[in-house]
């Protein structure tokens, strides 16, 4: 196969289904050799879908592409290093990583257990670190590579009953920026995508009101394959000058997201007291406050 990624090798985690699967298939269609990683786990992280990675490899090979399966857990640093080793051993190099693996254990904060917080952060945030760290050594040796991390508007903006997921996903955005800064000298890029798509992750959304039912209906129209083009561009030679950015992809829309910067300031000669903070600082700064929105409040128009 020939295409935009001809000659490149891509590792996609959590690629046994949903967004990861479609990115792996699309990458192979563009000429990349693909390491298809999937633990074969349920949405909550329990092993229940053994063979998911192998099934995607079979699809790629049936279409004339090259791929191998890996069933390691991204939460295990040794397993992450093995993913990179598998890529280099099978295909001679590694050019791009898509950190897509994830689980959900939703719950309101006052009911969330340590175990549910820990499990989600371990897969999303630690998983992105583990795989990126393992790939960094190979990228530095090659003097080039691309890291594409999946963040979420649940972290970038906010969402109910997802403190663990939101914390991990916002942490991934900061991790990506640090990687972009630290590895720039070796021509390594690092970017984030906040995907909107119906997948294993979003299929757990509770439908208990007509409004939620309508929201889910709209989500079901957003296919995971729509995320792939942006991810493949960021992995390609054409995307080598794009780094440290946060994108969102929703159906046929692509957004570049803002990143925290000062919006207003106040100064007082001699410093502040609690009283002058109340009398002067807060009234002056209030116009710059961010509303307590959730993702759906910000992305409040129909996808196009």
UniProtKB/TrEMBL annotation:
Ketoreductase domain boundaries: 8-204
Database matches in SUPFAM superfamilies: NAD(P)-binding Rossmann-fold domains
Domain of life: Bacteria
Gene3D superfamilies: NAD(P)-binding Rossmann-like Domain (3.40.50.720)
Pfam families referenced in this protein's UniProt entry, alphabetically: adh_short
Family from the record: Belongs to the short-chain dehydrogenases/reductases (SDR) family.
The protein's name: SDR family NAD(P)-dependent oxidoreductase
Lineage: Bacteria, Pseudomonadati, Pseudomonadota, Alphaproteobacteria, Rhodobacterales
């Amino acid at each position: 196969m020939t295409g935009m990624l001809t000659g490149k090798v891509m590792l996609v985690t959590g690629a046994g289904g949903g967004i990861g699967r479609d990115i792996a298939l699309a990458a192979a269609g563009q000429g990349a050799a693909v390491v298809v990683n999937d633990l074969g786990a349920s949405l909550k992280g329990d092993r229940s879908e053994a063979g998911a990675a192998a099934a995607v490899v079979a699809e790629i090979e049936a279409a004339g592409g090259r791929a191998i399966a890996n069933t390691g857990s991204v939460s295990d640093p040794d397993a992450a290093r093995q993913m990179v080793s598998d890529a280099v051993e099978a295909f001679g190099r590694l050019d791009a990583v898509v950190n897509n693996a994830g689980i959900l254990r939703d719950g309101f904060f006052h009911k969330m257990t340590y175990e549910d917080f820990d499990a989600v952060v371990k897969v999303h945030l630690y998983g992105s670190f583990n795989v990126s760290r393992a790939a960094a050594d190979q990228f530095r040796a090659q003097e080039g590579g691309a890291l594409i991390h999946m963040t979420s508007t649940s972290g970038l903006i906010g969402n109910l009953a997802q403190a663990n997921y939101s914390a991990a996903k916002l942490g991934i955005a900061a991790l990506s920026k640090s990687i972009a800064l630290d590895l720039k000298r070796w021509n390594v890029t690092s970017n984030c995508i906040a995907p909107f798509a119906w997948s294993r992750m979003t299929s757990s959304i509770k439908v208990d009101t007509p409004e939620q039912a309508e929201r889910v209906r709209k989500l079901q129209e957003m296919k995971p394959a729509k995320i792939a083009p942006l991810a493949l561009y960021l992995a390609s030679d054409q995307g080598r000058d794009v780094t440290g950015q946060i994108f969102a992809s929703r159906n046929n829309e692509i957004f570049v997201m803002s990143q925290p910067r000062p919006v207003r300031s106040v100064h007082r000669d001699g410093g502040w007291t609690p009283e002058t903070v109340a009398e002067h600082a807060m009234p002056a700064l209030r116009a710059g406050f961010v509303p307590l929105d959730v993702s759906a409040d910000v992305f409040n128009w129909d996808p196009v």
